[in-house]
Structures are given as structure tokens and as C-alpha cells.
Amino acid sequence: MRRKLVAGNWKMHGSRQFVRELLQDLVERLGELPRQKDIAVCPATIHLPLAAQQLQGSSIALGAQNVYCRSEGAFTGEVSAPMLVEYGVRFVLVGHSERRQLFAETDELVAEKFAAVQAQGITPVLCLGETLTQREQDKTTEVVLRQLVAVVDLVGVDRMIDSVIAYEPVWAIGTGRTATPDQAQEVHAMIREYLRSRQKEVADRVRIVYGGSVNPGNAAALFAQQDIDGGLVGGASLKPDDFASICRALD
């Protein structure tokens, strides 16, 4: 049985005081969640040291929102996977739609970041998803598989077992819109079927979570789908009541 995961992506939000208060609240609320579930939060990079301190001794894992594909060098402003290891980071988002769209990250760069993260023993959360225009043109499968295959071709399908895949339809991020449970399940099943065509064990074991305006009102219905193993949560992860409710919606 696949281990469920809910990860909160805080994006570029928060102050030191906000991080302290939010994490203290979440640790208190989520301290009794079953251990077979993974809960993670991904604060802004500058807040990782503080978050690492706040989460010591808790069951909430620390994640990062971004990483560079090289371990060191003259890359001003970037953060490497070995640096993240020093703060106990367990998950790293790679290929988030905002990185792809706003910062022009290519499928090839995302694949290199994925490999760099895995090389340090951190779990990459590979984000895949289509825009509204692409969905309306019936290109969802084409786009999602192109993004996935770029990674599989670089690292090999075997390495996908040690990752998380996050399907995040771009048209449902920060818009208040969300894919219906059936729409999300259809894409998750397609991703898993592709992996099954390459290696059955990978398809059976890899976790595929849904990201796209997950909230307390839709989380249970989404998580009840056969191929949805949790959620990548945006705005709702900044609200302790909402995030705790979403975490409790896991089977």
C-alpha cells in the first residue's frame, strides 16, 4: 500500500514570526496523525533554518520549493541539494508550473534538478501539468507525458520509485478552480499506466498526489480516488485550520 502524503507549498509568503506561529500551531494540531502518513511543509528558502528548528522532534517533514542542478559553483542566488541536506530537507519541489512559466525552466533543466536531488538522498516532488489552453486543445496527455518522459529518459524509470509525482493542472492553481475528482483521477491513472508500461513495480509503488486548489471542501473526495495518494497544497497550507483538515482527510 502506498504511503499517503500531503505537502504544503508556502510559495513566497511569510515572515519569521509567521513561520514560528504557523509551525507551532501545525505541530500541535498534527502531532497525533498516524505515522503511515507523510506531512511536509515547504517554506521559502530563507526560512528553512528556522523551520528546521521549529520542526525538530515533530512528525512534520521539511521540504524546499526549489533547488539548482549543480552541487556548487558560480551560480549567484541559487541553492544546491547538498545545502538543503544540511537542514534536514526531505522533499524538494521540481518543475512547479510557476518555475516553468515565470522562470522559463525547461523539461531538461527540471530533469537535471530531479537527478541532483535524488543524488543527495532527498525525495523530489516532480510537478506535471497542463494549461487551460492545452486542456481545451485535448493536449493534457501529450503535455504531461512529455514532462514526465524528460525525467524518465535522464534518470531511468527505476528511479521514479524514489520520487513523488504531483499532477497540478495549471488552470487550477491559485484560481479557485479545481479539477473534479474524476478529472484528476483520469490524469493520475494515465500517468500510472504509462509507468506500468515501463515497469509494473514502479507504477504500483510511486506516489502521485494532486495539486490545484486543494481545500477542506474537496480534499476527501479527491483523496478517495484510486490513484490519488495525497495532495500538494498551496494557499490552504498557510491556514492551520484548513491544512490540518486536509491532512485529516487522508485515508
How would you describe this protein?
The chain has helices at 16-30, 48-54, 81-85, 97-102, 107-119, 132-136, 140-155, 181-198, 200-205, 219-223, 240-248; strands at 4-9, 37-42, 60-64, 91-94, 123-128, 164-167, 207-211, 230-233. By secondary structure, it is α/β, with parallel strands linked by helices. The protein has an 8-stranded parallel barrel, surrounded by 5 helices. α2 (48-54) links the parallel β2 (37-42) and β3 (60-64). α1 runs parallel beside α11 (240-248), α5 packs across α7 and α7 (140-155) packs parallel to α8.
Helix content: 40-55%
Structural class: alpha/beta
| Rg for CA atoms | 17 Å
**Can you tell me the residue ranges where pLDDT is under 50 for at least 5 consecutive residues?**
none
Strand line-up in the sheet with most strands: 1-2-3-4-5-6-7-8
Name the helix and strand elements from N-terminus to C-terminus, one letter apiece.
Answer: EHEHEHEHHEHHEHHEHEH
The total strand number stands at 8
Q: Summarize the main sheet.
A: 8 strands, parallel, barrel
Beta-strand percent range: 15-25%
What is the count of helical runs? Answer: 11
**CA(first)-CA(last) distance:** 12 Å
What are the main properties of this structure?
251 residues; alpha/beta; eight-stranded parallel beta barrel; 8 strands
Produce a short descriptive summary:
The protein has 251 residues and is of the alpha/beta class.
